[in-house]
DNA sequence: CGCTAGGTTGAATACGCTCAAAGATCGTGG
DNA sequence: CCACGATCTTTGAGCGTATTCAACCTAGCG
């Protein structure tokens, strides 16, 4: 069984054995983190790149008076610090939200992959593009959606992203997020998140059992939140690139 | 005199003549757009990449009921559709905010540059990373700052970005944005933007003459908005990459 | 058993929104 | 060159969504 990274990149291009070997060359060293561990903080030099095998993390920024905004959530299959070879100090922090398991390597290793396995390199670059698309959707969510829509929309995004790596069912997934964390992601107050969740529950749209989020009617919630999953899934690399990278 | 792209990339790496030639190979074909022209819309195939020589544009998403959120502003020196070789349909739209002048080329040309002039390629890739950093800052701005801080913060961002390409003075620049556009960038209503601008004016922080924004006291405004320009400027490429790309 | 982290609820307040209408500015055609 | 329409700005009034403050409840863990 392959890890979440292979699974995710595999939906994009059919990885050859050589490419899988190439990817595995990045997976020589493992490192795990406890909940609340800080992988790196604002201003730190970025010396390492991580591939997340298991667990959740968050990328965030803090203001001096304690306000905090979560930029996005990092899930299994995601990379942390891919831009390490291009940017030397971090402009945000990354904390583990659960216990995490990762592979670590030097950022320059990515550049080597581009040379050796260009098609795999393209798939990894695509990953970076998708990350930007997720960030863009986060801007719209916070800027132009109501608290109700925002929350629903985030849940649907998490559902889809987790499905892509085989960690969510048709309509449910483990969600290790406190309301406090949700608030800082959604740009809302903790109290208002609590009330919004209640509304979502009372409308029969979601159920929350233990830490598992169950979406009662995915279609209805998608319509309500005007959610479209295009920005998450890989269609394929455009034909031009496919040809270019042979 | 070189264009804004050379100027911007030049702050990052000292471009050799060969690299400048390499960059100029992307500037063979020009195209200009009228104000309000749509470069591409959500769902369109991305077939071309643009380098902006002059004029402003915006990247935005719309909801079905007419709500609109601007993701970021595109200024001279910026690229549009760099991910063209990786993503085949656009998940957002790009409209010209003023008359624009650009250079166009096929997305795959970027890949060629990576091969021929790797250091220049790295500088262009850095550009993409910076774009993500700007988007991240937009998330924080909208999610966790007050209307007053938001507006001030955006103005400072625009000042710095324009200074980088030589299009702003020490404390002022041409800003071709209506309040309606500002509102959709800041996640506020038009009316509230108007009132916020008045407050900024009455506090003696900014002045708006014709379409020129003058920041009365940049330091004070930066402190007030908790603005730090690190995410905009190039420090340098990290040493590891410099070595790698020789 | 007591502490801490997280969840729930109420009450009062405030920030920003909507609706509405009236000026100002600019480009264009008569 | 002026008049007209279109676009953009300004202001008032009332409202609503989301915030703050505060308290209490619950579960898990040492």
Please write out the topology.
Two copies of one chain form a homodimer.
Chain A: H1 4-10, H2 17-24, E1 29-33, E2 38-40, E3 49-54, E4 57-62, E5 68-74, E6 79-80, E7 93-96, E8 100-105, H3 108-116, H4 118-144, H5 147-164, E9 172-174, H6 179-186, H7 190-202, E10 206-209, E11 212-215, H8 218-225, H9 239-244
Antiparallel strand pairs in A: 1-8, 2-7, 3-6, 3-8, 4-5, 4-7, 9-11, 10-11
Helix pairs in contact in A: 3-4, 5-7, 5-8, 6-7
Chain B binds a DNA duplex (30 and 30 nucleotides) through residues 146-147, 178-180, 188-192, 194-198.
Give your account of this protein's structure.
The structure is a homodimer of 246-residue chains. The first copy, chain A, has one domain (4-244): Jelly Rolls, CATH 2.60.120. Chain A has helices at 4-10, 17-24, 108-116, 118-144, 147-164, 179-186, 190-202, 218-225, 239-244, and strands at residues 29-33, 38-40, 49-54, 57-62, 68-74, 79-80, 93-96, 100-105, 172-174, 206-209, 212-215. The first copy, chain A, is built from 9 helices and 11 strands. The radius of gyration of chain A is 18 Å and the shape is globular. In chain A, the strands form 3 sheets. A 4-stranded antiparallel beta sheet of chain A has the order 1-8-3-6, with no helix packed on it. A 4-stranded antiparallel beta sheet of chain A has the order 2-7-4-5. The mean pLDDT of chain A is 93. In chain A, strand 10 and strand 11 form a beta hairpin. Chain B binds a DNA duplex (30 and 30 nucleotides) through residues 146-147, 178-180, 188-192, 194-198.
């Amino acid at each position: 069984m392959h890890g979440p990274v292979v699974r995710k990149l595999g939906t994009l291009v059919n990885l050859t054995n050589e490419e899988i070997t190439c990817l595995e060359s990045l997976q020589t060293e493992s490192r795990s983190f406890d909940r609340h561990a800080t992988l790196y903080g604002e201003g730190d030099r970025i010396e390492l790149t991580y591939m997340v095998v298991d667990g959740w993390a968050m990328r965030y920024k803090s203001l001096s008076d304690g306000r905090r905004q979560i930029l996005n959530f990092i899930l299994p299959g995601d990379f942390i610090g891919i831009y390490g070879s291009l940017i030397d100090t971090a402009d945000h922090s990354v904390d583990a939200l659960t216990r995490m398991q990762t592979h670590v390597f030097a950022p320059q290793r990515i550049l080597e992959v581009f040379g050796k396995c260009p098609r795999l390199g393209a798939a990894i670059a695509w990953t970076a593009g998708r990350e930007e698309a997720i960030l863009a959707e986060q801007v719209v969510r916070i800027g132009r959606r109501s608290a109700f829509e925002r929350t629903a929309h985030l849940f649907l995004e998490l559902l889809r992203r987790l499905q892509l790596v085989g960690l969510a069912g048709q309509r449910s997934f483990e969600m290790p997020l406190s309301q406090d964390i949700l608030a800082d992601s959604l740009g809302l107050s903790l109290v208002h998140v609590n009330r919004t969740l209640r509304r979502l529950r009372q409308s029969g749209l979601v159920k929350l059992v233990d830490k598992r989020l169950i979406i009662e009617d995915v279609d209805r919630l998608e319509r309500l939140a005007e959610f479209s999953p295009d920005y998450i899934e890989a269609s394929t690399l455009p034909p031009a690139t496919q040809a270019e990278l042979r």
